[in-house]
Write a structure and sequence with these properties.
The chain is globular. α1 runs parallel beside α2 and α3 packs parallel to α4. Helix content is 20%, strand content 35%. The strands form six sheets. Strands 1, 2, 3, 4, 5, 6 and 18 form a seven-stranded mixed beta sheet that branches.
């Protein structure tokens, strides 16, 4: 067994993990980055489409261009990393000592760390999780699997495609299939609104004449050795199938794009408190979890709209780790809760101190037009032409504004028509 000591151990080498490793190294922390795959970079490596970097770099980049800019920074700083590293478990010894047990090709490593930054990303929901019955032949893939097959290995999964769910990866794959000459029969969404960004609905579906069936659900997959067809039905306002509305769509491939869930298995074993609304951990404004010295960023915290946001969170977690190691944290009794008001499904972070600038990320429960997003306790509000569950709301609050709150603050949505 090999024993090493570090200031920070970062688990996961996607945008959040790489950005965290760069920032932590720049802050003078002895850092190591662990990745269970054979290459650094995470999901952006298989994203040959543009749309990355607009927020962070102020440029429109492909996923590979975006991530290689961070990898270049890593290389110049000499950040230490290990690939093919499987993190078996995390132990909490005391306030300033955690142990990360890692299985590698060189053997078992026992890494002692003052702080841990957890950036393992999210996993895709499978056909079993969304309750679709029927046969299980060849030709059923998650959107991420199909993207990997096409953009990494050059394999075409099928020619007649039905996509279940309208998450962003599914929308992007609809365009990808169309560009490769496949026929995308339909994108089927159980909700009455799309699950992805409106720009992806426009650029990936409407520009390629791909049908989007809202308030519809696939109830059965049919096929012997290969997918032959799916059975589709309309659903009511309670998302229940409407009898007599069933119809068939012949296809040879089914793509599941039913959303992501934060991959937080190791954090759950460690005893970190979780937020049922996000599926990720409860954090303060430094992205520190309820276990002192354990930070989380990227899609392991909350499923983000953009890789840019994940990279920002990685940098913030590194800054939080530096503050923690230097003993400059804020006592738990000084944290003020961020509460969810009208039409807010979740808000991140869950606690603030009022002593530093904070960016709050939130999603709404249902779409609305012409609204104010408000923080009543601060007298803060900002107009939005429309809010949608698929599009993150960002509130950039300065510390001089946050200092006005004596206790908790509330994020809420107020339609203009209901103003007093």
């Amino acid at each position: 067994m090999i024993i090493e000591k570090y200031d920070v151990v970062i688990i996961g080498a996607g945008p959040a993990g790489i950005a965290a490793s760069v920032k932590a190294t720049e802050l003078g922390l002895k850092t190591i980055l662990l990745e269970n795959r054979e290459i650094l970079g995470g999901i952006p490596l298989q994203c040959i489409h543009p749309g990355f970097g607009l927020h962070y770099f102020k440029e429109d980049l492909t996923g590979t261009q975006f991530i290689y800019r961070f990898l270049d920074k890593m290389d110049k700083l000499g950040v230490e990393y290990i690939v093919n590293a499987y993190v078996h478990s995390i132990e909490y010894r005391d306030y300033m000592e955690k142990v990360v047990n890692v299985i590698t090709r060189k053997g078992v490593l026992k890494l002692y760390a003052k702080a841990i930054i957890y950036t393992t990303g999210a996993r895709e929901r499978t056909i079993f999780e969304i309750g679709i019955v029927g046969d299980r032949p060849d030709g059923i893939y998650t959107a991420g699997e199909a993207q990997t097959m096409m953009d990494i290995f050059g394999i075409m999964p099928g020619r007649e495609i039905v996509i279940i769910g309208s998450g962003d990866v599914g929308l992007i794959m609809a365009r990808r299939f169309a560009l490769e000459g496949a026929k995308v029969k339909a994108v089927i969404e159980i909700m009455p609104y799309p699950g992805g960004l409106m720009r992806n609905v426009e650029q990936c579906l409407r520009d390629f004449n791909v049908p989007l069936l809202l308030s519809h659900a696939v109830v059965r997959v049919v096929g012997k050795t290969r997918v032959e067809k799916v059975i589709v039905t309309r659903v009511d306002e309670n998302l229940k199938p409407i009898p007599g509305t069933e119809f068939e769509i012949p296809c040879d491939t089914v793509i599941i794009a039913a959303g992501l869930r934060p991959d937080v298995y190791l954090l759950e074993k460690l005893g970190v408190a979780m937020d049922p609304a996000t599926g990720g951990p409860v954090v303060n404004e430094l992205l520190e979890t309820t276990v002192p010295g354990v930070f989380v960023a990227g899609n392991a915290l909350v499923v983000n709209d953009l890789a840019d946001y994940a990279a920002e969170q990685g940098e913030l977690a590194a800054e939080g780790a530096k503050i923690f190691i230097d003993g400059g944290g804020i006592p738990a009794e000084d944290w003020k809760p961020v509460k969810r008001g009208r039409n807010i499904r979740f808000a991140i972070p869950h606690y603030i101190s009022g002593k530093r600038d904070v960016t709050i990320l939130a999603r709404v429960t249902r779409p609305e037009k012409r609204v104010f997003v408000k923080v009543p306790e601060l007298g803060y509000k900002v107009f939005h032409m429309a809010v949608r569950p698929a599009e993150m709301i960002r509130l950039d609050l300065r510390k001089d504004v946050l200092s006005k709150a004596s206790g908790s603050i509330t994020i809420e949505v107020e339609p203009i028509e209901q103003r007093a």
